[in-house]
Specification:
CATH class of the largest domain in chain A: Alpha Beta
Number of helices of chain A: 13
Number of domains of chain A: 2
Helix content of chain B: 55-70%
Distance between the termini of chain B: 27 Å
CATH topology of the largest domain in chain A: D-Maltodextrin-Binding Protein, domain 2
GO molecular function (chain B): transmembrane transporter activity
Radius of gyration of chain A: 23 Å
Largest sheet of chain A: 5 strands, mixed
Strand content of chain B: 5-15%
CATH architecture of the largest domain in chain A: 3-Layer(aba) Sandwich
CATH topology of the domain at 62-163 and 282-417 in chain B: MetI-like fold
CATH architecture of the domain at 62-163 and 282-417 in chain B: Orthogonal Bundle
Helix content of chain A: 25-40%
Subcellular location (chain B): Cell inner membrane; Cell membrane
Number of strands of chain B: 9
Organism (chain B): Paracoccus halophilus
Strand content of chain A: 15-25%
Protein name (chain B): Amino acid ABC transporter permease
Structural class of chain B: mainly alpha
Distance between the termini of chain A: 69 Å
Number of helices of chain B: 12
Transmembrane segments (chain B): 26-44, 96-118, 130-151, 199-220, 241-266, 286-311, 387-408
Structural class of chain A: alpha/beta
Oligomer: heterodimer
CATH class of the domain at 62-163 and 282-417 in chain B: Mainly Alpha
CATH superfamily of the largest domain in chain A: Periplasmic binding protein-like II
Chain lengths: 341, 417
């Protein structure tokens, strides 16, 4: 009796050891089997990713999750949103907790290489700025010498801030915060004189204030912050799917494909590029393990890039961001979708 | 085992490992040991395999790269050009500072509250009961967040001290300015500074060294005087009055040095956005210190009360019968016996406080968890290495505290054979 218990437990340990599995690299199949896309988003940044009172997420980054889910699973609502802080986001992605990270994260060399991530493109060209109260009568970031500055830990902005003040021979008191909500609270309680993050984030944060007119964003842009979705390094097919879904949204705007006219264009467009994009000819989708209509579904989920921008963060919204660098290359911006061919 | 001469021990068979009581316990121990090792090796192997699958290898090189971030409170010089290792040391020192100060204040508060809870004054005893029960029964994190909220919402911003008719006034003769960012307190200034002694980038003022030397000398002189007084008392039966000599050897050099160096307080003054000149005690630090003190103090109060109650009433009655006054009864009879009950659980409380200081993350206090386990971990993506290092540091720290306190315990415990 005792012997069998003993051997049984040894056998169990050996079996468990041999069954130790490493995270495998077939995200597409995993997502399809699971039937839902796990998308890492901000814990709450109005306009980019924030839940409403009923728990429905919306925003610029959320729209990309929806487009990807529509392309892969056929339904833009089959997304599980995983709210992540600046501290937890990359660990969550590399451990497999999320399939894609769409959380206004800056594409940097070290994240792309050392952290083993793959940024699939840029969905928002941003830069770091400072927000202050109007009554402080500060008009330039150069006047912030000695100020207390709220800063989210674990972000590129933390490093840019240190560099900027050092380069300008100024001093500051960092007030470390963990999430945008905490930053908002500390800033409004005047525990810091200025709040620094990406300008888009500042605009989104300000839009949520009771008195947005009393706060200004200083003109200095102290860094380049190309924000984009990221996937795990090593699963190239999944990376391709995410990358070309983003390009599909951008290309759709370039060629005038909108969620309103897409069904019509899919049947009757005379533009060969549009025909290939919408799967009328060539069936590009099959090359990345999807079907021909993947891009149609992705675009229908929330509209093309321009529609998403206008709906979530554009000038008609409380956040009021201009297209600026994020206009199409034909309009003097930096958005440039690679050819669908 | 007792062996009888002449009795033949039976030949060894394999089954005896299980059925013979002499070998069974050894067999079981060996089996459990092997299982434990197997489990450990499985965990380690699994971790390494999964890390390899993610394309990550264990490497501590990142510790020697440029950190690039700033830390608000630093006990040793640090700037963003320093390495992650130095940032971790800055964090560790911050952990040590808040733990050390927390242990001292929690002990003072706890002993006081514990003694007062036994007071015959109904109101004071009940007040202490209320204090102990609310702090002991609500999670520490909630206390930290509550105190932080009070500090940042109730206290005025530095701006409120500006102008001819400021909204907020400094307290204690215009020397201390509590704000929602920090408490600005005066710093020490010298008109006749003797310079500093520098080790690398760390500087120690010669004035501080002089004071330390004067203090140590005073302690030694005080001991000599007391020994002499004891000898005189042993010889003549009359103890000479020495308190004024002791007081003057402590105070006179102090006063002289203060006059010589021109030591004075420099009150904080509002410059630009923040207070300057004084010392700004960050709210994150004050809040954490306060919360750790109040929370752990409640536990120490109960430990103290238990220790005092554990000394039987007969002991103090006997002391009274011998004619000892109440104070001497407490210090010579009750406390020495109470200490041996108090000290062992007190060690656990110190360890708890040290480990609880990692809740600093909730207030943004940059302790070891905030630097090595927070920003460094994030910027480098070396989760495994940072966590392992952090665990090792906390382990060493707590084992150190524990062994130090055990030494103290062996000093105060009841000497018995």
């Amino acid at each position: 009796m005792k012997k069998s218990v003993l051997f049984g437990s040894v056998a169990a340990v050996v079996l468990a050891a041999s069954g130790a599995m490493a995270a495998e690299g077939d995200t597409l199949n995993e997502v399809k089997t699971r039937g839902v896309l796990n998308c890492g988003v901000n814990t709450g940044l109005v306009g980019f990713a924030a839940p409403d009172a009923n728990g429905n997420w919306s925003g610029f980054d959320v729209a990309f999750c929806k487009a990807l889910a529509a392309a892969v699973l056929g339904d833009g609502e089959k997304v599980k949103y995983v709210p992540l802080t600046g501290q937890t986001r990359f660990t969550a992605l590399s451990s497999g907790e999320v399939d894609i990270l769409a959380r206004n994260s800056t594409w940097t060399f070290q994240r792309d290489t050392d952290l083993k991530l793959d940024f699939i493109g840029v969905n928002y060209y941003d830069g770091q700025g400072f927000m202050v109260r109007k009554d402080q009568r500060v008009t330039s970031a150069k006047e912030l010498n000695g100020a207390s500055i709220c800063i989210q830990t674990g972000t590129t902005t933390e490093l840019n801030l240190a560099d900027y003040f050092k380069a300008n021979n100024m001093e500051y008191r960092p007030v470390n915060i963990d999430s945008n909500a905490e930053g908002e609270q500390q800033y409004l309680a005047r525990a810091c004189d200025a709040y620094t993050t990406d300008v888009s984030g500042l605009a989104a944060t300000r839009a949520a204030f009771a008195d947005p007119e009393n706060h200004i964003i200083l003109p200095e842009i102290v860094s380049k912050e190309p924000l984009g979705p990221a996937v795990r390094h090593g699963d190239n097919n999944w990376g391709d799917i995410a990358r070309w879904t983003l390009y599909a949204l951008v290309a759709a705007e370039e060629y005038g494909v909108t969620s309103a006219n897409i069904d019509e264009l899919a049947k009757s467009s005379g533009n060969p590029e549009v025909q290939r994009l919408l799967g009328a000819t060539d069936e590009l989708g099959t090359m990345i393990g999807l079907d021909a209509a993947w891009a149609v579904r992705a675009i229908k989920a929330g509209g093309n890039y321009g529609e998403i921008f206008a709906k979530t963060i554009g000038e008609e919204t409380p956040i009021g961001l201009a297209r600026g660098l994020n206009a199409q290359w034909t309009q003097g911006g930096l958005l440039y979708a690679m050819p669908f061919r | 085992m007792v062996s009888y001469p002449g009795a033949e021990s039976p030949p060894f068979r394999l089954s005896m490992l299980i059925y013979d009581r002499r070998y069974r316990s050894l067999t079981l121990q060996a089996v459990v040991f092997i299982l434990a090792m197997l489990a450990a090796s499985w965990f380690i192997n699994n971790t390494l395999q999964n890390l390899a699958a993610l394309g990550k290898t264990l490497s501590f090189d990142f510790l020697f790269r440029r950190a690039g971030y700033d830390i608000p409170q630093q006990l040793i010089p640090y700037n963003s050009d320093d390495t992650h290792l130095r940032a971790a040391v800055v964090g560790l020192l911050n952990t040590l500072l808040v733990s050390f100060l927390g242990c001292i204040t929690a002990t003072i508060l706890g002993v006081l509250a514990g003694v007062l809870r036994l007071s015959s004054n109904w109101l004071i005893a009940r007040l202490m009961t209320v204090y102990v029960e609310i702090f002991r029964n609500i999670p520490l994190l909630l206390w930290i967040l509550l105190i932080l909220a009070i500090f940042s919402e109730v206290l005025p911003p530095p701006n409120a001290y500006r102008g001819d008719t400021p909204e907020a006034g400094m307290i204690l003769f215009e020397t201390i300015a509590p704000t929602n960012r920090y408490t600005a307190i005066p710093s020490l200034g010298m008109t006749n500074s003797p310079g500093t002694l520098t080790f690398g980038r760390i500087g120690i003022s010669w004035a501080f060294i002089t004071y330390a030397v004067a203090f140590v000398a005073a302690v030694l002189a005080h001991r000599l005087i007391r020994a002499r007084a004891q000898r005189v008392q042993d010889r003549t039966g009359i103890r000479p009055v020495t308190w004024w000599i002791s007081l003057s050897i402590y105070l006179l050099p102090l006063l002289f040095l203060t006059w010589y160096f021109g030591l004075h307080l420099v009150p904080p003054a509002l410059r630009g956005f923040n207070f300057a000149d004084g010392i700004n005690l960050d709210n994150s630090f004050v809040v954490l210190w306060l919360a750790l003190t109040l929370y752990t103090g409640a536990f120490i109060a109960e430990i103290t009360r238990a220790g005092i109650l554990a000394v039987s009433k007969g002991q103090s009655e006997a002391a009274f019968a011998l004619g000892l006054r109440p104070r001497r009864t407490m210090s010579l009879v009750v406390l020495p016996q109470a200490l041996r009950v108090i000290v062992p659980p007190l060690i656990s409380q110190y360890l708890n406080l040290t480990k609880n200081s990692s809740l600093a993350i909730a207030v943004g206090y940059m302790d070891l968890r905030g630097t090595l386990g927070g920003t460094t971990l994030n910027q480098t993506g070396r989760e495994m290495e940072c966590m392992v290092l952090m665990m090792a540091v906390y382990l060493v720290l707590c084992l150190g505290i524990s062994s130090g306190m055990n030494l103290f315990n062996s000093g105060v415990r009841l000497k018995e054979r």
